[in-house]
């Protein structure tokens, strides 16, 4: 299993996030990547695929915002990381926005996803890690993209949930552009991948299946309900399997079996796994109860289907178990 990672991904290190009415230390820390690398061993640097594959998924105005927001913030006399406090929820329309706070609200979905001077660089190389791991898998190899910052909450034109560029979507679109006609994404992060769902909502060529905590109780609250199935050409290629807090392997594995059966009917040329290990029993911000050994079981069930599998990293915040949990999953493939 080749591991793809770039040290520039460590540069994104916001100080804090807004959570439950107050500031808390940022959970998506660079030490997460170091903890995984310490257990996984050698990694290789990504190949630079440029901005093309990123712009094939993300809005050019949003990409420009990610690059320029820290400088605009400083110009406005602000200190610290860029964060929004006003969002255009009602009758949003395309108007020229100049004030940084207006742009920050326009291009984000929450106050948990600050932008620092190194964020663009880190997110860029996180996406390049995904694209390089994709190359390896399409060439018949096995690869894990150690993506960090993660991606699945980011939509075409917004950041959120610690995510800036949607690495799974970028890899899926790149695979489509390399003539893989049908691509499936299985998202097993604790949280619903609202960004990935949103990006492929109306498309029948990319199947999105997600197993996650019920949005009635958990972030991102507004998306991930079982009745969200896609729209237009995408009806039936979105599958949401919400589970209650306290879920253990038995129910998770049953849900994954259901997702894999649906993906099998779709008959993908490639499966992308959005792997979050915030489903682990000791995760500090989540409430499922998977064990380290369970990840190998889940991966074994995925591998049994026989599709080429690209695994890329999403969430997981228990530094002491992150490496072991990811290693367990990869061992099962
Ligand atoms: N202080 C991913 O796992 N807010 N994102 C939760 C924690 C946001 C999780 C509050 C959670 C986002 C990739
Ligand atoms: Zn998560």
From TrEMBL:
PANTHER family: HISTONE DEACETYLASE 8 (PTHR10625:SF17), HISTONE DEACETYLASE HDAC1-RELATED (PTHR10625)
Tree of life domain: Bacteria
Protein's name according to its UniProt entry: Histone deacetylase family protein
Domain Histone deacetylase positions: 49-332
Lineage start: Bacteria, Pseudomonadati, Pseudomonadota, Alphaproteobacteria, Sphingomonadales
CDD domains in the cross-refs: HDAC_classII_APAH
Cofactors demanded by this protein: Zn(2+)
UniProt source species: Sphingomonas donggukensis
Keywords assigned: Hydrolase, Metal-binding, Zinc
């Amino acid at each position: 299993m080749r591991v793809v990672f770039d040290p520039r991904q460590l540069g994104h290190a916001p100080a804090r996030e807004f959570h439950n009415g107050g500031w808390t230390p940022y959970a998506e820390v660079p030490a997460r990547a170091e903890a995984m690398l310490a257990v996984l061993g050698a990694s290789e640097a990504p190949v630079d695929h440029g901005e093309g594959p990123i712009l094939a998924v993300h809005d050019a105005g949003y990409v420009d915002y990610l690059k320029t927001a820290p400088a605009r913030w400083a110009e406005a006399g602000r200190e610290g990381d860029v964060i929004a406090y006003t969002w255009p929820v009602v009758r949003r329309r395309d108007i020229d926005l100049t004030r940084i706070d207006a742009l920050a609200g326009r291009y984000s979905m929450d106050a948990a996803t600050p932008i620092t001077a190194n964020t663009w660089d880190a997110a860029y190389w996180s996406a390049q890690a995904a694209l390089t791991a994709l190359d390896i898998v399409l060439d018949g190899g096995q690869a894990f993209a150690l993506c960090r910052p993660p991606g699945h909450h980011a939509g075409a034109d917004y950041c959120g949930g610690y995510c800036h560029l949607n690495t799974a979507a970028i890899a899926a679109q790149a695979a489509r552009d390399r003539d893989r006609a049908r691509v499936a994404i299985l998202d097993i992060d604790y949280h619903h991948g609202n960004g990935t769902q949103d990006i492929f909502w109306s498309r029948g060529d990319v199947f999105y299946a997600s197993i996650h905590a019920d949005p009635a109780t958990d972030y991102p609250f507004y998306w991930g309900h079982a009745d969200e199935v896609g729209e237009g050409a995408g009806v039936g290629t979105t599958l949401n399997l919400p589970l209650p807090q306290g879920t253990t392997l038995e129910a998770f594995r049953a849900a994954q079996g259901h997702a894999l059966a649906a993906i099998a009917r779709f008959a993908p040329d490639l499966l992308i796994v959005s792997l979050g290990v915030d489903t682990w029993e000791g995760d500090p911000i989540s409430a499922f109860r998977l064990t380290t050994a369970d990840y190998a079981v889940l991966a074994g069930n995925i591998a049994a289907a026989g599709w080429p599998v690209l695994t890329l990293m999403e969430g997981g915040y228990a530094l002491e178990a992150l490496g072991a949990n990811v290693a367990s999953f990869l061992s099962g493939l």
